[in-house]
Amino acid sequence: MRWSSAFMIELQIEKLTHGGRGMGRLDGKAVFVPLTCPGDQVRCRVTRDKGRFAEAELVEVLEASPQRRVPPCPLFGQCGGCQWQHLPYAQQAEWKSLIFGELLTRQQIASVDQIGPILAAPHEFAYRNRVQFKCHATDSGVVLGFYRSGSHFVVDAEQCMLVANPIQSTLVFLRKALTSVPVQGAIPQIDVGCDAAGVVEVILHALPDAAAKLRPWLSETAQQGGFNAFLQSGRKQSLQTVRETAVMSHQVGSDPVTLQAGPGCFTQVNPDQNSRMVDHVLALADLQGQERVLDLFCGIGNFSLPLARQAGEVVGVEDYAPSIASARKNATNNGINNARFFAGDARGAALKHQGERPFDLVVLDPPRSGCYAVMKELQQVKPERVIYVSCDPATLSRDLQLMVRNGYAVVQSQPIDLFPQTWHIESVSLLQRQG
């Protein structure tokens, strides 16, 4: 039986699922409802019936689960940035661990004893050092905030509990400054980042026709606000420096490597958890000083340079050329001379850079879409070990299945929480070639 759209049902929520929604069953059909919690009795409205399952929106919590808490942020449920603020953090971490383990064991990729307990974050708020604010021009001025879940409606946000204090202060400043911006409808997004020393970087995204008019305003605003400023009017290659007085830098690992990141370069948003993740990768790598290591999607050297301290040679590949420039500079600044970096696509890189001596270890840190094509190429290169750093358990599961079917076994897979208050799960998996 199919339910019509807007059909009202009552439901007992049983569990949380990948994607962050609660799931309950009615007449044997699974129903997925955002903003719910295991143990909730809810009234919800069906938005889509897919036959075997349905999607619904929460209308009312009839009886709250004992697991629930009052969400600390007043915008929770409106802003799409967080999905789990209604859960105490210990419960969030537990459910992430369960969801991650279920995805891998259900596909017979790994057994329960090969999946480590989640590495929970030390801070559930004020952890992000990089964020994207969305903008929308109205008759009363520019609205600055975040998209509502599933839409491009910008929710006005005076603060965000997830961001580090320097970003919060910059948000307050920018909200006032935008009242005098000369072309209000030409700014779709503003990126703000910071480092531990308090250096703040702002990237103003502008429509190409308005970039020239916005540049003087941005320069003056950046000087008043004391932050680095850049203007972007298209893809990252269009970035222009407007004001830069200091370079942002980040320390990674318990034996710290200092990494400088230019504008537009990818860095992990949770520096504390990133350092712990680097340490975990080093422990899994267990290098003895002679190994050849290939780091694909290497960015500014987040894993490459700590690994190079313990390896014979590291080759890093990244398709964003400014990140490679930063990686090379970071190697020099840290006195590391056994790491080479190349700008190029990860696809084809393993074969291109293999040389006469095979790689002993390949490290992968792909985007959310994963790296299925690269994993296919690794079947030809046949490294002894592969460490896969993933930010999406679904694409991780798909890619690991390919490796497991072709002569590799998962030795360990470790979920790591880089994103408290959200359903997103980072992980590190070690694969060993068999035979």
Q: Keywords, please?
A:
alpha/beta; OB fold (Dihydrolipoamide Acetyltransferase, E2P); 21 strands; 3 domains; seven-stranded mixed β-sheet; 435 residues; Rossmann fold
List the helices and strands and how they pair.
Elements: E1 8-16, E2 22-26, E3 29-33, E4 41-49, E5 53-63, H1 89-106, E6 130-138, E7 141-147, E8 154-156, H2 165-177, E9 189-194, E10 200-205, H3 211-225, E11 228-232, E12 240-243, E13 249-252, E14 257-260, H4 271-285, E15 292-296, H5 304-308, E16 313-318, H6 321-333, E17 339-343, H7 349-352, E18 361-364, H8 372-381, E19 385-390, H9 393-405, E20 408-416, E21 426-433
Parallel strand pairs: 3-5, 10-11, 15-16, 15-18, 16-17, 18-19
Antiparallel strand pairs: 1-2, 1-4, 2-3, 4-5, 6-7, 6-9, 7-8, 9-10, 11-12, 13-14, 19-21, 20-21
Describe this structure in words.
It is a single chain. Helix content is about 25%, strand content about 30%. With about 425 residues, the protein is α/β, with parallel strands linked by helices. A hairpin with a 7-residue loop joins β11 and β12. α8 packs parallel to α9. It is globular and about 65 Å long. The protein starts with 7 loop residues before the first strand and ends with a strand. The model has no long low-confidence stretch (mean pLDDT about 95).
Please give the count of helices.
9
Rg value: 23 Å
* CATH class categorisation of the largest domain: Alpha Beta
Number of strands: 21
Query: Any idea how many domains?
Result: 3
Reported by name, the CATH topology of the largest domain is Rossmann fold
CATH architecture of the largest domain: 3-Layer(aba) Sandwich
